[in-house]
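User: Hey, quick favor. My workstation is busy. Could you predict this chain's structure for me?
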Amino acid sequence: MSSLSPIDLLSVSADEQTILRCLTKHPRLSVFELADKTGLPLFQVEELLGTLLAQAQVIEQLQQGKRLFSTRFQFKRRAVRNMPGEILALFEQSSDQFLAETPLTAVLPSTAITQLLNLSQKRSLLPDEVLAWQGQKVEYVALVQQGLLAHTRLKGRHTNQKGGYVHRTEWIGLTEALSERAVTATYTAVTNATLLTWPVQEFLDFAQHHCGFGLTIAHQLSQQLHECEKAQTQGLSNMGN
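Assistant: No problem, here it is.
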């Protein structure tokens, strides 16, 4: 899709149409720029963008610390020529096979994997698109099926400092969901990415009904805690030298 069709516009309100038309002509605008160009109040622009983001009509990207918005249909995935067979196989892998080979979910029987997959929603991200903002309440648990994401601290002593990357088969929001904490970093896509997502409560209910899965989660979190304590101890030791 390269432009808004009349059918597309029928599904949104008049003010939402104003936002979409403006972003079609002027992609990658900030909230303030959108308010200026459309003449709509800033608070209304924020509300409209929230609705359009939920409908996947608009994408939110983080570029050089600035929130920018565009219409989703303006971006197309690029085909990669001469892709190695091993990489191509990952793109062609079915979601149930992916879950069967992911360390955390590999303990589940096939019937449970099917059940977990039926509870999930697939989400595609474009480069620089924001998955979750630091400080927000966790609404879903996500598993990276394809692509690469980065997590960045936007507040405190480590402002705009990349904390690391999230790769294929790694989880986002799992520890926050279990501890009922807000997201501790902002997650953005580095490449085109595909994720499986679950509403937090549905994911937790599933884990409670599958003891082996719950124990595997607890074991993984215990390992992460041990690694954090080890890194902190080494850091204090280095400071003393």
